[in-house]
What we know:
Blueprint: H1 7-10, H2 15-26, E1 37-43, E2 47-55, H3 61-74, H4 83-101, E3 105-111, H5 120-140, E4 143-150, H6 153-156, H7 161-171, H8 174-179, E5 181-183, E6 189-191, E7 205-209, H9 214-221
Amino acid sequence: IDESGSLQETDPKDDRAEILSSNLTQLASFRKGVTVNYSVAFFAQDYSLWKPWSTVNPASILTDARKLDAEVRKRDSGQLTNWLVGVDGAINELNAQHARTGGCSTLVWLTDGGIQLSTPKKTGAAVVELCQNRFDVLRKNGVTVLGVLLKNDEALNKLSPTDKEDQLTSMSFMRPMVEGTGTTSEGSTLTCGTYPLPKNYRQGALFVAKDPKDLAFEFLKL
């Protein structure tokens, strides 16, 4: 979950907190006999594991959801938006959990803006790493990646023309990373990793919300 400071503009009422906590409770609705484990981490400039892997317990899931709601509301002051450090942290957690359980794996990745590191050079290098390596490895390893982008038009329109263009460009990298191919804001097609996807790869999907309230609908589809 993105915790960058831009969330104060893109989600000023913290709508994502209630939406995420509500979706956490849905994990308790799987049929009997199916064990569901989940973990929660935040990222901005750095990666921060908040909830280590835990088994969903219907008796305590509402309490867990309230804790998540409260935590998300606090997490909107991070510097930068380092997709690479967030995805690397998630990969390490997923690998460790898969080694323990051998279960099916899904990564839900929520961000409110394009990738931004401390310099354009570092940002470009991170885009290359994510596109050519990280997401290809995730798909190859059987991880279903579900990306959720909060692309708040109202917040974007408050930016200078140059900053808005930069944001739209970096945001547009998310679809090819998650789904394997996509069109950038400049109109060119970008392919990330092996594409078309081999039959033994997991497919990913990107969901885009134009404002915080739309997040609920996108998570419902997810």
